[in-house]
Design a protein that fits this description.
The radius of gyration is 21 Å and the shape is elongated. It has helices at about 15-20, 50-55, 60-75, 95-105, 155-160, 180-185, 245-250, 265-270, 275-295; strands at about 30, 75-85, 110-115, 125-135. The chain has about 300 residues and is an alpha+beta fold.
Length: about 300
């Protein structure tokens, strides 16, 4: 869709003049996901100094820029996504501030924690969504499509099973060259389990294994894909971490979607994304409200 403008830049520079230049009609929906690194609970074992840095991370206030744009464009609907940790960070003060700021916009809004696995994504991934409208309808979140009494959950095997063959060629599908010690560690991790730290021989022990020494279960949804530092979990039956393409499959990116930059940046692009399947369910759901609005 080449006619749709795409602006790459700092939201602080997205002034009213810039918005007016590219948007000259009513806006139906505003969708955003302000960076969440300061709110995430991944790697919870942090020093007090690091905790303080996270609390005052300038990215924590980018939601205010999202709301600034919301107030100016006045779309009929809005949707904003973030990590669940935003609800408890700083003893809930940030979460209360976000709710108060949304309330001041005049939108009828609400929030909910959704698990991507309930929406056809082969991954356990809980995120909080703020959603609202100003057109006088009572908006609800999309209904689950997987789970008890519904379709079965999508599994890791369904998502990446065909990529296990060494001869498969796919974009971003390059396994890391793990060292012999890590491979020996991986061999001790049972499918669906984590590193048995209390049973390791001395030569394989290290002080902290973090969250990456976990092996996926082929018959269940994946653990959450997290961004940065090649931190993807271990393949269900191969003794290596997931490739970027495998993680992208679990996030439901199509195979022709190429991740750019070095491997760490590719991992960040995958891990920071809202899963495609969950995004699609939200889009369909909001479209039903818009269809009703325009057909009345």
């Amino acid at each position: 869709m080449p006619a749709i403008p795409f602006l790459l830049g700092d939201i602080y520079n997205l002034t009213e003049e810039v918005l007016d230049k590219y948007i000259n009609t009513d806006v139906d929906v505003l969708i955003g996901g302000p960076p969440c690194q300061g709110f995430s609970t991944i790697g919870a074992r942090v020093s007090s100094n690091e905790e303080r840095r996270n609390r005052f991370d300038p990215r924590n206030t980018l939601f205010k820029q999202y709301i600034r744009v919301l107030n100016y464009l006045k779309p009929k609907f809005f949707l904003m996504e973030n990590v669940k940790g935003i609800m408890t960070r700083d003893k809930g003060k940030i979460f209360e501030e976000i709710k108060e700021t949304f309330a001041a916009t005049g939108y009828d809004f609400n929030y909910i924690v959704l698990n991507a696995a309930d929406y056809g994504v082969p991954q356990i991934r809980e995120r909080v969504f703020f959603y609202g409208t100003r057109i006088g309808v009572k908006m609800t979140p999309p209904k689950k499509i997987c789970g008890e009494g519904l379709a079965p959950y999508k599994t890791v095997m369904e998502a990446i099973g065909d990529l296990a063959d060494d001869n498969v060629e796919a974009l971003n599908h390059v396994p890391l060259n793990h060292g012999a010690i890590n491979i020996a560690r991986y061999k001790l991790i049972p499918e669906g389990g984590r590193m048995p730290e209390d049973k390791l021989p001395p030569e394989l022990y290290r002080k902290n294994f973090g969250s990456t020494f976990k092996r996926l279960d082929r018959n269940k949804p994946s653990l959450t894909m997290v961004p940065g530092h090649n931190a993807f979990p271990i393949h269900p039956w191969l003794h290596r971490s997931l490739t970027v393409r495998e993680a992208a499959r679990i996030q439901m990116f199509p195979d022709d979607f190429e991740l750019m930059g070095n491997r760490q940046k590719q991992c960040m692009q995958v891990g920071n994304a809202v899963p495609v399947g969950l995004s699609f369910e939200w889009a369909k759901h909001i479209k039903t409200y818009l269809d009703q609005y325009y057909n009345e």
